[in-house]
Amino acid sequence: VFFSFCCFLISGCGSNEKYEVEKFLYGTNIKIVLYGKKSDMKKAAELAFQEMERVDKEINNHSEGGVFDRINKNAGKNKEKLNAEQEEILKRVIKASEETYGKYDVTISPVFDLWGFESGEDKLPNDEKIKEALKLVNYNDIVIDKGECALLKRGEKIETGSFLKGYAIYRARKVLEANGVKS
Description:
Blueprint: H1 2-11, E1 17-25, E2 28-36, H2 38-59, H3 67-73, E3 80-81, H4 84-99, H5 109-115, H6 127-134, E4 142-145, E5 148-151, H7 164-178
Antiparallel strand pairs: 1-2, 3-5, 4-5
Helix pairs in contact: 2-7
């Protein structure tokens, strides 16, 4: 009887339903599982996925025309304007690079490019090419000033893959919370 009563309280007369939805983003399946009133959960999950898509479009360095794509293409030439969110992200990843004495470095993209992961070539580069690419890896060459960002040398690139999914999930969680999701 006690168990049945507890189940009744937890179920909340149908208001504590499980809502599950999955979407392919960031090269993987992302599943959101929520509990509450199904009609409320459906809209909240939709908004959370929209936020993750926004983050991908605006923050992903592989997103054509996004700020990090433009920063990378203008390395050694021009500055790019940052909004407050983008500037905060960059400051945090630079801080992470400083705290790890450069073991974590978001400018690793020239080395990643050698392996051909993005192009689907998947090749093993030789040591000479790796040494050359490493000359373009230096988080200290990311300059942020008055809401603008620049990379100092041509060929340098910021790689957002190390933090992008985590940040997108963080933002999705904020959207869910703002829409009353508690579980």
